[in-house]
Amino acid sequence: MHRPLWLLVLASALIASSGRAGSYDFVVIASSARAPFAGGAVAAFVPPSIDAGGRVAFLATAPGTGSAIFTASQPGSSLDDYVQITGRQGQVSVDVSEIGSFVAGFVAFRASSTVYRGPEAVGPLIPLFGPTVSSGPPAVNALGEVVLVDDLELVRADVQGSEILLQKNDQVAGGTIFDIPFGPPPDINDTSQVAFFADIDFPSGPCDEAFMRSIVGGAEVIALGHDEQCDWDSSGSVPLAINESGSVAYAPFVFDPTNDIGTVFVDSTKVWDDHMPGFGDSPSVEAVALNDGGQVAFQIESGSGFGVYTGSDPLADKVLASGDRLCDATATDIDFQRYGQNDAGQLALYVRLSDGRNLVVRADPSTGPGGQCITVPEPAASLCAAAAALALAAIRHRGRFRPMPRRLRLFAPFLVAVLAPWCVRAGSYHLTVIASTDGGPFHGGPFAELIGFDPPAIDSDGTVAFAARATSQGLALFTGSQADLSIDGYDQLTGLQGQEVVSILSIGSFDAGNVAFSGADAQGMAVFRSAHGLLSPLYRSTTFFRSPAVNGAGVLVVIDGSPLAVLKVDSQGTTTLFQRGDTLAEGNKITGIFGFPQPDIAENGQVAFFALTDAEPCDEAVMRGSALGVAEEVALNSFANPSCDLSEVGSSYGFAINEAGSIGYGAQYFDGADSVEAAYVDLTKVWDAKTPGFPANPVAEEVALNDAGDFALLIAGSDRTGVYSGDDPVADRILVDGDPLCGSTVINLDFQRFGLNDAGQVALWVQLQDGRALIVRAEPGGTGVSCVTEPCTELAAGASVLALTGLRRRAARTARRCPRAA
Hints:
Blueprint: H1 3-17, E1 21-31, E2 41-42, E3 49-50, E4 56-61, E5 67-72, E6 83-84, E7 96-103, E8 106-111, E9 114-119, E10 126-129, E11 139-140, E12 146-150, E13 153-158, E14 161-166, E15 171-172, E16 175-179, E17 187-188, E18 194-201, E19 209-215, E20 218-225, E21 241-242, E22 248-250, E23 253-254, E24 261-266, E25 269-273, E26 284-290, E27 296-302, E28 305-309, E29 318-321, E30 325-326, E31 329-335, E32 347-353, E33 358-367, E34 373-374, H2 381-396, H3 406-424, E35 429-436, E36 447-450, E37 457-458, E38 464-470, E39 475-480, E40 491-492, E41 503-511, E42 514-521, E43 524-531, E44 534-540, E45 549-550, E46 556-560, E47 565-570, E48 573-578, E49 590-593, E50 600-601, E51 607-613, E52 620-625, E53 631-637, E54 648-649, E55 656-657, E56 663-671, E57 674-681, E58 684-688, E59 699-705, E60 711-716, E61 721-724, E62 733-736, E63 740-741, E64 744-750, E65 762-768, E66 773-780, E67 785-786, H4 793-804, H5 808-817
Parallel strand pairs: 1-34, 35-67
Antiparallel strand pairs: 1-33, 2-4, 3-4, 4-5, 5-6, 7-8, 8-9, 9-10, 11-12, 12-13, 13-14, 15-16, 16-18, 17-18, 18-19, 19-20, 21-22, 22-24, 23-24, 24-25, 26-27, 27-28, 28-29, 30-31, 31-32, 32-33, 35-66, 36-38, 37-38, 38-39, 39-40, 41-42, 42-43, 43-44, 45-46, 46-47, 47-48, 49-51, 50-51, 51-52, ...
């Protein structure tokens, strides 16, 4: 290949990788003209929905299947590339009429007058409420609560049953409810706040209809109608949308002497009306969406066709409209719904093209001119294309780079070697699967179940402790440092022949080869330690201790007794370290010990715990106690006084203390009248919920801290959960729901305070869409994923890169060392 052509290939690939600013690029998730839906149908007039990670739920028919809901985040070529939600073997048969919200791995939909919730993971469809004559995309939040109007009553329901929120003759906002009509349909957010419409008798005047928002103890008015003296004249029928801050988007008609004006409002702010030019003849609103960032998106129908917009500028705010060119044809029909936009600003659309194709597309905000039609998966498209081009040229030229420019000749092998693993998975952590349930490359593996509510722990050498149920045994505790197809590749610590039967409740610290865990035997609950192949109870109690803390010397710290006290347990017995009445280093006295968060103990015997003191006004404190029995206050807390360091310490999980005595924990701090979720190391705030890019309504449920001062966080939100090593949602991301992994997609994960070691390695439990569960070790400073069990996996990858770069002799040596790498 000549120099000018090489420069063109490489330059164009690298320039393309820099992104396209402004407007939108369109990822074709499904097409009626492409496998697997060619010969079937992509359902028109049932607009798709989208989740926080950009996965799209849509209705389609593939050859050989009936109509079903599918989900995917990128284009596919076979049904194996999609998750089928309905129509699975063993499921109840349903006829889907509307798709609703897509959150937390569940798609809400309406079928046969019943609202269901369908899991992406293997499982049955979950009926939430029905039969009902309510309409609109079903409003189901991440908690599994549906809100709808049934028999003129505002109803909230979940798998436990239903309750009437409001009904005729209820008193609300100074008036009496006369009627709750079916439209506009209500919505519910992940804090269970509801937006709805009602006819209300107000004694004060003509405004007798209201858009409303539920609040503690009742509801408040957003806007009143329907008279020329009111905010609007007619409510319309467009379904409402409420976001996590409680803002509500709605589309009423505002009074005008000649003709009522169609509008879009967010709370009291008008964002669009039909007198604005550029939206076609007689435009009307068909759907409104509102994300947690406050971005509104809406669909307009006019004499010119359909369009989806994010504001009042018909050019700058256009996503797609009839007449636009898309995928070598012209868009004719477009459909969109209130759950078609996520917090990243991605939108899910149904599009019909002039050549007859029906598409489900995801519109991704671009940093360039936009309009690109993406019909094949692009994990790292442009840079990967550059690597592929170099590799192909290497093969074509028999491994010699002489026809290329000298600089490129020297640079090409390095570029291919670096980009090849990055094209598999970009990120700052290499993920290694330690164990997997049956499926994928682990077909026939030893584990039938990996326990998800009991996340793994990790030792200093990267060995991971996890609870699993082997295919031929009961639940047991295992350790391992790499995946294996045989149970002989793991060390089994409990459930061995001759051992007393012990159930595992919660894995704790894993130090110096010894695993601590809470469990129960014939005598009752206890904290056990597996040390040097022997299993022994350290402390017996009727209290459950989550992720018990035992240091390398075998010393356990618990909070127990009546009244509660901080206890140290070792081979010498049980000693009270701190209790009510003790004097602190600051001179205050401890007036009570809290059972949560769980305490922790360092190798040098320092402990972290939470206590009540006689200090005012900050009468609660995160404490650091020495091995000599002297405690000091690290952070002061009071839920009622903004002068304190914290407003609330996270009570569900545990502290983490390192050898320097620093303490990691989750807490809330005062921000004006509000409290904000955060994570701390001592008094240093290392993350807070105001940082954009993290899950919605985030909480730091677990904080791990190693001796180097590095920390890792389990951030749980209403839309997804992720594990991070800092406050940058991109650079510090380890793994998050929605990430691709081992041929599937992460839909759930868990992590605990003993899941981080001093090398910065992190141990995770992960659930995939295809039903597999994994134990994964994440290692900093690398990229890619080790998903297979062969010991020569890394050498095989190296041989592939060497072969592509033309260094065949070295590749052959690698192949001889590891035949599977050939």
